[in-house]
Amino acid sequence: MAHSYTPGLKVLHETKVKKDRILPLKGEVVVKLNDQVTPDDIVARTHLPGNVQMMNVGNLLNIDPTDVEAVMLKPIGSKYAKGEIIAETKGFFGLFKSNVVAPIDCTCESVSAITGQVVLRDAPIPVEVDAYMRGTVAEVVPEEGVVIEADAVFIQGIFGIGGESRGELVVLAESREDELTADMIKPEHAGKVLVGGSFLSLNAYKKALEMKVAGIVVGGFNYYDLEEILGYTLGVAITGSEDLVTSLILTEGYGEIRMGSRTFDLLKLHHGKFTSINGATQIRAGVIRPEIVIPLNKEDLKGDAQAVKINEGIQAGSLVRVIRAPYFGRIGTVVSLPSALHKMESETMVRVAEIKIDDEVMTIPRANLEMVEID
């Protein structure tokens, strides 16, 4: 039987989710193996070196570079408070002294007898990594971080913006066809993850930002409105570092596209549960999909949880999504996977799939498809 090996989106009602929570450089792990953690619990911390500032003390005091170290008031490695004198000349008979003060709270790292430059470093920047989701510490990586594990609902989106967020899941749409409008977003939704149906307008997203909503999960959004949100044109789909109050996850694509029935029904089933989301997306090598993680309580478990499986590939009967124009975001079922190469309008010969979308069978390059995985 023909197969097409393509990464797919996962919509799993119960699975083992493991999340690496790793520091950017070595530091201290503050939890132990098998500890129970909540999303806001700090699991590891470290300090990033502060920024460096250069001061040409020789020029500022009008002295020879070789004399700079002699006029420093403290030895190399000492700390200075902002505004504190770091170097001072003796003057004439104690008069007409000149000095230089620290522009920031800093540490003196070095003094150059060649250039007269003094290197000052800002105070270290504290960095803390939280657990992101409720779960158990399944592994500890000494000085680096941990792996958190939980039985959870796991849903991937096709595109997102904004980084990690979390909050109570609130399903506002009555059905997957409904638009999430601005008037549906209220002050009481601050800090919550809202679920819509087919579409979210730019005005509605701005309302969510104003109300400090933690995140929104919806079927579609207008591509050209992203520029107004981000302040630049999104050429390459690498997101997640945006400084946004409200993370946004699209489950289907750009435009008005009703949310997949399995995704919507699963989210509606867990209305009111505490949810962790991440809008980070990377479409190119090393694919990263935006995600929704809903940790399950013991009473929610059906006993059929399993680790996320390796994708077995697209085959006849598979549910797939088109990931390139002109049918971007549309979902259909694979009718067949012809073995012969097919000539496209661009004159290129490619392998294709016959896809049934809304009662119409279309021929689409396999590279333009991804499988929607369900459990």
Apparent shape:
elongated
The number of helical elements comes to 5
How many strand elements? 32
Q: What is the oligomeric state here?
A: single chain
Percent in strands: 35-45%
Low-confidence stretches: 1-7, 307-312
Rounded to an integer in angstroms, the radius of gyration calculated over CA atoms is 28 Å
For the largest beta-sheet, the strand count, sense and barrel status come to: 17 strands, mixed
Helix content: under 10%
What class would the helix/strand composition place it in? mainly beta
Q: End-to-end span in angstroms? A: 22 Å
Number of domains: 3
Look at the structure and give the mean pLDDT. Answer: 88
Care to describe what's here?
The model is unreliable at 1-7 and 307-312 (pLDDT under 50). It is built from five helices and 32 strands. With 375 residues, it is mostly beta strands. The chain has helices spanning 57-61, 68-71, 202-210, 226-230, 261-269; strands spanning 9-22, 28-29, 36-37, 42-48, 52-56, 79-80, 85-88, 99-101, 106-111, 117-122, 125-130, 135-141, 145-156, 159-161, 164-171, 179-180, 193-195, 199-200, 215-221, 238-239, 247-254, 274-278, 281-282, 291-295, 306-307, 319-322, 331-336, 342-343, 349-350, 352-357, 360-365, 369-374. The strands form seven sheets. The protein has a 17-stranded mixed sheet that branches. Strands 5-10-9-6 form a four-stranded antiparallel sheet. A three-stranded antiparallel sheet has the order 2-4-11, with no helix packed on it. It has three domains: 9-45 and 130-305, no CATH class; 52-122, Beta Barrel (OB fold (Dihydrolipoamide Acetyltransferase, E2P)), CATH 2.40.50; 319-374, Roll (SH3 type barrels), CATH 2.30.30.
